[in-house]
Design goal:
The structure is a single chain. This protein has one domain. 40% of the residues lie in helices and 24% in strands. The protein is built from twelve helices and 18 strands. This is Adenylate cyclase. It comes from Hydrogenovibrio marinus.
Length: 390
């Protein structure tokens, strides 16, 4: 089966509740690979106040892989300090080269180490099932169930044999990668990243749990508009050299200092033009720029599923406490594990393939986000991983 045929065979849904059903999922082809990327020692970098850089490195891997596999659409999910991909064998050589370039960008430009692991699907004991979720007209995400994505992540972090060879040729294209927005202050009292991992043995029970979780979120925090982590009014473009560093380095990758300087100037000029077009509702090539901030909010991947339920939301502190109390009850009942990082702002990294119509924005809570929540989740699992409930 070709990649295009497989992509078209994956069910596509437009409502979140439709994805929380076993019948929604299709298994990954046996000869495919799972690619896992993450920043090594990201916790230390976060403690040094460098989460924007960590977040940007994670987003850069998506840009590089998407560009390497164009025009094919490949399944992936953003995880804060990295990303995970499912890929057919015919694209692996291009992807290896692209991700080797990401490693060089991380180490040479940002003094961070990016781990890249490649696991044959056939090496996993757990399954990977996929579905597609179109949460907005121009945003299609992939959801993953079955345990295989978690297993691949664990293998990459525990077995050096799966890591990308250092001899791999570097050839990365970071076109479309943007990291220009300031931190977005929370529309309410708190912005948080939440990870929830089911302890239930059967997929159908896990999906039923996640349905219950989404219902509880709507009950306690309000609907999508009420709990969304971004607000149009709070979006502003940055002109800071430090905040634009990651994009500048990516766009001038393997070029000299003069080219890097020109790139930094060009990014600022583009942002200035963007600010003007947004304020004046300029129409360019049929696109009304006054709509851009609304489109950005709509095209944000603030909810996702990759064996674990992941989300970034905003709410009032008392409402979050009620949600955490419910999660703690479920945890004590042996039903789930969870990790939550609370802060007062969100961070977004963007992949813009066609300005105005084709852009996705990867959101996380500031100051650690998913990475800090994952650390809490792992600590909880270590302390209380009794046999799963049946």
């Amino acid at each position: 089966m070709s990649l295009k045929d497989f992509e078209e065979s994956i069910p596509l849904f437009t409502r979140l509740e439709q994805t929380l059903n076993c019948d929604a999922y299709t298994e990954l082809p046996k000869d495919w690979y799972v690619v896992v990327t993450d920043v090594v020692n990201s916790t230390k970098a976060i403690e040094q106040g460098r989460y924007r850089d960590v977040n940007a490195v994670g987003g850069s891997t998506i840009a590089a892989v998407v560009n390497a596999t164009k025009p094919q659409k490949i399944p992936y999910v953003f995880g804060g300090d990295g990303a995970s991909f499912c890929l057919p064998p015919e694209l692996m050589e291009k992807v290896r080269r692209a991700l080797r370039g990401c490693q060089e960008l991380a180490s040479d430009g940002l003094d961070l180490k990016l781990r890249v692991g490649i696991v044959p699907y056939q090496a996993l004991t757990q399954k990977i099932h996929l579905c597609r979720y179109r949460s907005a007209p121009n945003l299609t995400q992939y959801f993953f169930m079955g345990g295989g994505m978690d297993e691949a992540d664990g293998l990459v972090k525990s077995h050096l044999g799966y890591e990308l060879s250092e001899d791999t040729i570097s050839d990365a294209d970071f076109s479309g990668f943007e990291c220009r927005w300031n931190q977005i202050p929370s529309p309410k009292q708190v912005t948080f990243s939440l990870l929830v991992k089911s302890r239930l043995a059967e997929n159908k029970d896990t999906l039923a749990l996640y349905r219950k979780l989404t219902q509880k979120v709507d009950e306690l925090l309000g609907d999508r508009i009420e709990h969304h982590p971004l607000s149009q009014d709070n979006l502003s473009l940055s002109f800071s050299a430090e905040k634009l560093k990651a994009e500048t380095l990516a766009k001038s990758f393997h070029h000299n200092l003069w080219y890097r300087l020109k790139t930094a100037i060009r990014i600022r000029l583009e942002s200035l033009v963007g600010v003007y077009w947004i304020k004046t509702n300029k129409a360019v090539n049929g696109y009304e720029w006054g709509d851009y901030k609304a489109d950005l909010v709509e095209n944000t991947d603030y909810q996702k599923l990759d064996d674990n339920f992941k989300t970034v939301m905003s709410c009032n502190q008392s409402d979050l406490q009620n949600l955490l109390s419910w999660l703690e009850e479920q945890h004590r009942a042996g039903i789930l594990f969870y990790g939550c990082h609370q802060t007062n702002a969100a961070v977004i990294t963007c992949l813009v393939e066609k300005t105005g119509t084709d852009h996705v924005h990867f959101v996380d809570a500031a100051d650690g986000g998913y990475a800090v929540a994952a650390k809490q989740l792992k600590a909880q699992i270590k302390l209380g991983s009794e046999a799963p409930v049946h």
